Amino acid sequence: MKLLVVEDDRETALYLAKGLSESGYTVDRAVDGREGLFLATCGSYDAIVLDRMLPGMDGLAMLGALRAAGTSTPALILSALGSVDDRVKGLRAGGDDYLVKPFAFSELLARLEALLRRGAVTAATTKLRVADLELDLLTRTVRRRDKPIEVLPREFRLLEYLMRNAGHVVTRTMLLEHVWDYHFDPQTNVIDVHVSRLRQKIDKSFDSPLLHTVRGAGYCLRAPEPSAPR
Amino acid sequence: MMAEKLLLPASASWTAPRHVFGNAQRLFRTHAFRLAALYFLVFAASVLGVLLFLYWTSADFVERQTEATLDAEITGLAEQYAQRGLSGLVQIIAARSAGDRGDGMLYLVTDPDGEPLAGNLAGWPAGVPVRSGRLSFTTAARVKDRIETHPAQGASFIIPGNYRLLVGRDISDATAFRNRVKTTLLWAGLVALGVGLLGGTAMSRNLLRRVEQVNRTSERVMAGNLSDRVPLDGTSDEFDQLAANLNRMLDQIERLMTAMREVTDDVAHDLKTPLSRLRVRLELALLGPTDGSGQTDAIRSAIDEADRLLATFNALLSIAELESGTRREESEPLDLSEVARSAAELYEPVAEEKGFVFSLATQPGVRVRGSRHLLSQALANLLDNALKYAGGGEIQIRVLRGNGRAILEVADRGLGIPEADRETVFDRFVRLEPSRSTAGNGLGLSLVRAVMRRHRGTVELFDNRPGLRVRLELPELPA
Predict the structure, then answer these.
(1) Which of A184, A191, A197, A199 to mutate against chain B (most B CBs within 10 Å)?
(2) In chain B, what are the domains?
(3) Looking at chain A, which terminus has fewer C-beta neighbours within 10 angstroms, N or C?
(4) Looking at A74, A90, A120, which one is the last position of a domain?
(5) Can you point out the beta strands (E) in B363-477?
(6) Could you tell me the maximum CA-CA distance found in chain B, to the nearest angstrom?
(7) B400 beta partners
(8) Cis omega (within 30 of 0) on the bond before A102?
(9) Which of B350, B373, B388 sits opposite A190 (nearest CB)?
(10) Chain B nearest-CA residue for A198
(11) Contact B353 A193 (CB under 8 A)
């Protein structure tokens, strides 16, 4: 997987490149909008991480030019501007996700992975499946090992989001944004309780747990590895 | 050196007139001066026009009167002549000339040699040609004891047989009248122009004074005296309106500056402590054993500390942006019950977990205009507070309407907030718990208040007997 990081701050760019390389990506760097646009149009990248404020051509202008040229590489915008209005502007300009600085690297990684997957799974699916857990989007029912599981509407959406990102970490912020459409962090651990209730329903009476807590990052729904004893 | 010393006084004496000249030039360039000059010119032109009209009509009137009298006299004499011939004419003229009738009429009939036959003129006036026609001449008239030369106007006729007839009128009264009119109008004009000049000057001075007030105030404000305001006349004219608008603008600027200063102070006070704590923690980690596990813990706690700092910093920034009005949020018509229901649904599990009973009571159709994001965040802050400080019991969310206002209430059964502290809790970083053992930054209610102000609403705290009842009020959107 090849990524392009467009960031004018050297320190941040180095830290991003280092972190992403360690996570298994090939990373190219550009220091301004013009260079970024040039690289993004020529090279074939799987995703772009883009600072909003860049010297010369700013991030949104670069993205606009890129989209106008017909390049649809998924782009994640990094910005110090965090109001909902700024976010909407960024997404309208052609961004696929928006992350407010300062951010945790784990958050960036989780979002980037979600973006990369979004490109892959485009076919309309009516059923999501992880191991023996099955979610039917049409009848809005959940079954595990063919046993129906009763879930509340919000729990259904929570599970749907987790299953669409199965095998990958989703952060609490991502859940708040995508399941509740809230763009702020509550001081109480509201998400944890929702997740643990869902876990009660889908994991409790089964021997192999699917929904895992990833310490310091968020949650991950994944099929049990055949060899793992847990 | 010498030359310089010699030149100095000369150049000093030169600056004075130039300064005066400069002042005059500046005066000419002012709008007030130009306005006053224009005012004066228009005023002078109209006064001049009126006076000239008056002069011409009154002078003309007197002249026409003289003409009419003369014409009537000539017509009368012509009739007499036609009926009674020359002798009759002489008789009539002799009769009319007898004594001073005071009407200023002058008559003379002479024979072909110019010898008077009848009339009140001593002889054919000097310099007047002998022919039929209109003429102007002078006549000697006795006024009391003196003989004066008076102007006269008339007509002469050559009667068959070369006799001559002269009918005239002394127009000294008319001329005197015309002169008096002229003098009167001249004085009137001078007085009017004087008044106009004074009026124009007064007007321009008044204008200049009020502009100067605005100028002086803005200079003082720029010099740092932010609380200075433009004085109002109380006339509510355009200048008063301008001054009032400027004052409102200054109010706004002052408010923003104060808010900014407060934020800076807050940052200095409340971010320094955790920053130094963070630094100490990292320093200790560096000093400690490098075997790994201890350091990892230290780094982890440092990251937590940094996250808390960032959260505080972001909250502070949000409040400042909301209060200064620089933050733009899309505002849309919202169902307040929907906002409440959504937040309640998010918080209910955690509330139950902590031993609270959650209840939601909503009146249908309470609509407001605002930002769903901000209102949800305000409500979330209130719920966070209730969960943190109430300890247990019921948490009630209510949506209702009252007096055309939309009301959103969060009530708990905790200890409540003493009456005396109900204002101060809205200030930044104020936490009533002395030990500060509960997690939090003391910005929750400040943000709630900033959000409510942005929505032209209010936030008030009440005693829930027991517990705290927080009431958010904002304008209801008509259905």
Answers:
(1) A184
(2) 33-222 (3.30.450), 238-321 (1.10.287), 329-475 (3.30.565.10)
(3) C
(4) A120
(5) 367-370, 393-402, 405-411, 458-463, 468-475
(6) 161
(7) B407
(8) yes
(9) B350
(10) B349
(11) yes
Q: Name the domain boundary from A71, A96, A120.
A: A120
Q: Among B331, B345, B346, pick the best mutation site for testing chain A contact (most A Cβ within 10 A).
A: B346
Domain at A134, CATH number: 1.10.10.10
Report the distance separating Cα B153 and Cα B67, nearest Å. 9
Can you say how many angstroms the Cα of residue A132 is from the centroid of all Cα atoms in its chain? 24
pLDDT at residue B469 greater than cutoff 60: yes
Report which of A60, A34, A58, A165 is spatially closest to residue A112, judged by C-alpha positions. Answer: A165
Q: Residues 6 or more apart from B38 whose CB is under 8 A from it?
A: none
- Is residue A16 in some structural domain? yes
| Per-residue pLDDT tens digits for B91-111 | 888 888 877 666 778 888 888
Contact B134, B152 (CB under 8 A): no
3-state secondary structure of A63: helix
pTM, two decimals, is 0.62
Q: Which two tokens stand for residue B352?
A: 């139950």
The token duo for B95 is 């009769």
Tell me: pLDDT of B52 over 50: yes
Among A111-125, A143-157, B417-431, the range with the most confident prediction by mean pLDDT is: A143-157
Q: Rounded mean pLDDT of B59-83?
A: 85
CB count in 10 Å sphere of residue B242: 14
- At A10, the amino acid letter reads R
Closest-CA residue of chain A to B311:
A185
Are the C-beta atoms of A159 and A151 separated by less than 8 Å? yes
Which pLDDT score is estimated for B336? Answer: 93
- Contact (CB, 8 A) for A94 and A64: yes
The C-alpha atoms of residue A198 and residue A160 are separated, in whole angstroms, by: 11
The verdict on A77 and A134 lying in the same domain is no
Residue of A nearest to B331 (CA): A85
Residue A230 counted as domain residue:
no
Do A83 and B327 contact (CB within 8 A), yes or no?
A: yes
- From B169, B84, B161, select the one nearest B120 (Cα to Cα): B169
Question: Which residue in the set A182, A187, A192 is minimally distant from B440, CB to CB?
Answer: A187
The answer to whether the CB atoms of A188 and B353 lie below 8 A apart is no
Range of A136-145, B76-85, B299-308, B327-336 with top mean pLDDT: A136-145
- The whole-angstrom separation of Cα B194 and Cα B329 is 62
Q: What is the pLDDT of residues B224-236, one digit of tens each?
A: 888 888 888 888 8
pLDDT (average), residues B451-475: 92
- Could you give the ipTM of this predicted complex? 0.81
Q: What is the pLDDT of residues B377-403, one digit of tens each?
A: 999 999 999 998 888 889 999 999 988
Closest CA to B374 of B428, B332, B311, B427: B332
CA A174 – CA A181 distance, rounded (Å): 9
B residues 300-329 lying closer than 8 A (beta carbon) to A: 300, 307, 310-311, 314, 321, 327-329
Is A13 within the bounds of a domain? Answer: yes
